[in-house]
Design a protein that fits this description.
TIM Barrel, 3-stranded parallel beta sheet, alpha/beta, globular, 4-stranded parallel beta sheet
Length: about 325
């Protein structure tokens, strides 16, 4: 693994909203603190799970500044999503992440124009990096083609890492395509590759993956961190013990829709209905999901340790 690489368990944070759909800063900070206490190495504000594209650049910058100044998280624990279609706006968000001292920035490809080829995407990312000059943070390429309609291919990933080895250092694979994950690991050994599901954490790390960046870290991060630690330690018994629970939890939440399911689970656990709020075009979360997902026992079962089941306070 390259010295430039980042590794571990990364939580793409949910974004809680007040009833007027402004960002609920108190819930945001409490949730971030809980996730770190339960063992997440890093936080990734404003990814897909955080409804990033429903938030303005001003809001995104403001929450990053709040997190970094609140004492809840150090800037070095933050990996915000900064990718937009406009190169100028992407540069502004990404440079802001650098100025705050964030560990990295996670970049979607430009996603409106369909089927850009690798040459066009290379042009976009290289212009971005060159425009930032010495204010370019480490970059995580964010591959989620089912949402963006644009793939960040294994050859493109390898080319960007070769051209900018100090900057393009990681790749988040949210495609759900295991063969793509393996192809990126093989094509670009200088990249830290993060599958987007903890259910493949063990087999990913066995091939050289760096950890995972998973939506369900919002509800199960303690057990996900325990799995990461068990794989690193070579503790086969603990790995076998944890795997079924990770799969059950992920499947249960995914089956009702990750964002709405996670927010409903948070509302049931915290007894704070603000967690049910989502911004359009989503509809608000169904409060019944959180009550029913795990037999209505999530809050009682996990208590003060939160939904993750492990506390590292």
């Amino acid at each position: 693994m390259s010295n430039n690489q980042i590794c571990g368990v990364v939580t793409p944070l949910l974004t809680p909203y007040n009833d007027d759909l402004s960002i609920s800063e108190d819930l945001y900070l409490q949730h971030a603190a809980d996730i770190l206490t339960q063992g997440s190495h890093f936080l990734s504000p404003f990814g897909t799970t955080g409804e990033a594209l429903s938030n303005s650049t001003r809001e995104r910058m403001g929450i990053l500044e709040l997190l970094a100044s609140s004492g809840v998280a150090s800037a070095g624990q933050l990996m915000p999503g900064t990718g937009l279609c406009s190169l100028e706006e992407t540069i502004a968000l990404t440079r802001h992440a650098y100025d705050l001292g964030c560990a990295a920035a996670m970049l979607l490809p430009p996603f409106f124009y369909s089927n850009p080829d690798d040459e066009g995407l290379y042009r976009y990312f290289s212009q971005l990096i060159e425009a930032m000059g010495d204010k370019a943070p480490k970059i995580i390429l964010y591959h989620i083609p089912q949402n963006t309609g644009v793939a960040i291919s294994p050859p493109l990933s390898a080319r960007l890492n070769t051209a900018f080895p100090e900057i393009v250092v990681a790749y988040k694979d949210s495609s759900g395509d295991w063969e793509n994950t393996v192809a990126v690991i093989n094509a670009a050994p200088g990249l830290a590759v993060f599958p987007a599901s903890e259910t493949v954490l063990k087999k990913g790390m066995d091939l050289g993956a760096a950890g995972c960046i998973s939506a369900t870290c919002n509800s199960n991060v303690g057990n996900i961190r325990a799995m990461y630690d068990a794989v690193l330690a070579g503790d086969a018994a603990q790995v076998a013990n944890l795997q079924p629970g990770l799969e059950q939890h992920r499947k249960a939440v995914q089956n009702v829709g990750l964002i709405g399911g996670l927010k409903s689970l948070k509302a049931a656990h915290s007894n704070d209905p603000r967690w049910l709020n989502l911004r359009a075009p989503h509809v608000n979360a169904d409060p019944g999901f959180g009550v029913n997902l795990f037999g209505g026992q999530a809050g009682e079962r996990d208590g003060a340790k939160g939904l993750g089941g492990h506390s590292r306070r």
